[in-house]
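ingest -> validate -> predict -> emit
validate: passed (alphabet ok, no gaps, 249 aa)
predict: started
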Amino acid sequence: MTDLIRAELAKLRTTRTAWALTAVAVAVTLAMLALQLRNAGRAGAPSLGTTASMRAILGASGPGAFAVLILGVLSVTGEFRHQTITATLLVTPDRLRVIAAKLAAAAVAGLAVGALGILVTLAVAVPWLTAHGVGFDAVNPELVAVTFLVLLTAPLYAMLGVGAGALIRNQTVAVALCLLWFLVVEQLLPSYGLESLARWLPGDATRALTLDATVPDLLPAWAGGLLLLGDGLFLTAVGGRVIARRDIA
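emit:
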């Protein structure tokens, strides 16, 4: 199994799309960070130096998880689109093991991208805050917890992507449906009075995991994390069974 995971990591490492999505994640992180720093203390936003402001700054890399989500989708659907899945299954006929290896590799890659996003955030934010006379409390337990939980979001989103890719297989449709779900469907639910349903879906589970205090009635952080993990494993299990039972051209 270790060799399979290494092979999947090698595929990701040598694919230009993976590096492009990593660049997108970093760009999104920088954009969100600039927004947080510029708006601090304005229009009701917390002022620099407060714990709430520091939490928002540390969470700047969170939206970059969407790039990792797409990376997870492409790690599966790319094999079908480019017809490399046949060669992969000739080497490893056990299709469920292949999907499991992709899941593990995507989680590792997601963790790496998430760590990069946090490092970029700190590399930019700490000197900027220091220049403005604001100290950064690196040992604040709440800030340490937020940093860890934001980091955890990336591998969980990568696993969601693998599950969606395994279930749908068509690359364009899978990517479009994932983005549509997060950016449209879940955003509209409160407008229809379905807040109680929304808290059990991946979007609000992410907000719960990252301790987003701006949204009421969220699940506890541990429950949000388990819900995201369960969603990813469930989608992957169902998608893996579908792939295992279908002919591969």
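The mean pLDDT is 85.
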